[in-house]
Amino acid sequence: MGANHHKISCIADELVRWIRDDYLQIIHVHSRTIGLWSKELLACMTQLIAFAVVLWCPIGQNKVLINALFVAEQSIYDHIEDLMRIIDYKPFHKEMKPVRSNDETSIIDAALMILMVIVRTQNVSWFFRSNVSIQNALTTLAEAALYDEICLHIYGILSEVLSDEQFKNLKIADSMGGFFFNMLEQAWQHPLKKYKHSQIEHLLR
After folding, report:
1. What is the pLDDT of residue 180?
2. Is 144 among the domain residues?
3. d(CA 124, CA 126)
4. What are residue 46's DSSP bridge partners?
């Protein structure tokens, strides 16, 4: 089992280094022209970011792999801003569904998952704490989201990066309490102690 895990990690490391530059460049360039995307380009970008989720999120605590993606510190902040341009694109918000059944919902969900990996493995809390526009964009999306897992990602990101005082002052702080209580209640009653795809211990982080 340990040998297989090591082999998978080595393959993943090689793959990250192989696609790194192209992935970051594609997201960087196209996030700046998001208003011009066709349906076909949206589908391609959704698949690209979803592929990154499959590659990084299951092993998101592995800093070696994340560091292999971000060879320069500035590239971390650039990628956060690129993902935020996609996440904060209002026409996507209007098309969000209560399940991940279209590209608009899927790309926002996937981008948030990558942000979650970044905040848990990189020293970026100061960047979020000092960037009010990012905080506002995330809270606005949480208010508009119909898909519970999008809300879960946002609450998780904000709870990781904000100070206790900043967190309490969020305009969605009260609704977050009710949201988490409802999730925990449903997870506790689930035979596998899960809320949808999230283990109960993840909800209690």
Report:
1. 59
2. yes
3. 5
4. none
